[in-house]
Amino acid sequence: MKEQLSWKVGGQQGEGIESTGEIFSTTLNRLGYHLYSYRHFSSRIKGGHTNNNIRISVDEVRSVDDNIDILVAFDQQTIDVNSHELIEGGIILADAKFKPTVDESLNVTLVVIPFTEIAKEQGSQLMKNMVAIGASARLMNLPMEPFKDMIHTMFIRKGEEIVQSNHNALRLGFEAMDEKYNELSINGGFDLGESDGTEKLYLIGNDAIGFGAVNAGVRFMPAYPITPASEIMEYMIKHLPKLGGTVIQTEDEIAAVTMAIGSNYAGARSFTASAGPGLSLMMESIGLSGMTETPLVIVNTMRGGPSTGLPTKQEQADLNQMIYGTHGDIPKIVLAPTDVEDAFYSTIDAFNLAEYYQVPVILLSDLQMSLGKQTSEPFNLSRVEINRGKTILEDIEREEDDTEYFERYGDSEDGISSRPIPGLKGGIHHVTGVEHSPTGTPSETADNRQIMMEKRMRKLNNFVMEEPFKVDGEKDSDLLVISFLSVNGVASEAIGRFDEDIVGNITHVQLKQLHPFPAEALYPYLEGAKDILVIEQNYSAQLFNIVKMNYHMHSKMKSFTKYNGTPFKPNEIEKYINSILKIKEVL
Prior knowledge:
Rossmann fold, five-stranded mixed sheet, 37% helix, 2-oxoglutarate ferredoxin oxidoreductase subunit alpha, THDP-binding
């Protein structure tokens, strides 16, 4: 009986690998298990190796595992590429069609089942994925009924005949595995422990962001499709019209961001979402938002770069771009959710902060958080609050002979001016991207420039979120580990493998507020740590260097990076932490 196991399916892109994983994992979610998935796919519509790695557990999981237990192979390449990941005694379920072989040096069992042949007998070779799911269910001693219910849910719109054919394919796969089960002497070795039986949310980070945007009051989204952000746009296309909202697919990212600025200026909450190449095109307009003090929310789902780079692979290399990319100085906030659940709440925070401080807010995600599907506790909608700051929504009472323009950018102690929605009586003012006076009238005088610059930058002088980071551990530690976005979950698991009585106290900080950097709040943890380790997925250690800029004890800081396009695994971080502890022991 296993508390958790990993199941991976692989084949050629376009032959149903994603749907195979979706049906299998969604059924297990309905049975009450916790799930975490990672999709490896190519930047093309069809062809090229793809796989879906799904971790199933009786307890919460926030990363892929070190190895896999079961590999479902629709072609030989899947075996060649992925079999080395199998645990000792692992199982390969392979389609007989391609005459599968496996390296004899691996201590794994190859089970050959005619997936394609069985599927063809039921009317279409496309149903080989159902045969594979049936075989997997028998291997794991899972009941067939929940899978049949899932098939009915997915295919009933195509008619009862299609549903029945898929049911038959599922059953025949189950029976084919059953014939081989006893002779393999598995003896329940792939049975899962009992789940809590509670179905949870099962979603990708992009859906959590989309749902957060809807609950934040967004009613307009202009965007241009790009991996891995497109699902946010697709979510909004599906749901926003039901609320009277609109989504526009623009001609490019420049149009998207300027439309978002215009909509926010008009008083309607709006945002756009993109990835690194799109954000590069938006930089001038982000500056426009800062100069005109117009709220703006942009979601950046990071991927491998530069240029087109690795559009379908994991990386966290846009951090410097998001903080320093615009020309000139503007106040700006950069946030990073700690996990998929937090992505919902952080999205709402982003809109509230953008309107309260009248600044651009960038919500960072990465490919793994955006597209990796995982279970989450239901979102607590009672936590949702809308804060529009100093937005004026009603006519402004003024003396009849007062014909002066409204001081939209008037000075204030906190640097935040009142913001009337266009069309209000008494609120007329200029809006321009050049330097301007308090009424918005262009002005290039030295005195005005200094006053307005200081006014804008004063907004975030003392800005810190109520929870700028999530912390697990004490202020005084033998090792402080700092991470962000999808690295959080895998780092947390790796840290949990160490015995405090043996290695000492390890504290884990998961940063949420990346800019302005929460130096003062983080300082006690930095100062209280004997060693500091920053873990991230980029070549140049961008987060590590930002921490160094804000803390003086560089000698106790270490960096661990990965930039080959694949997510960290827990054992990689575990091994590196262990090397630090051994070095410390030697010293």
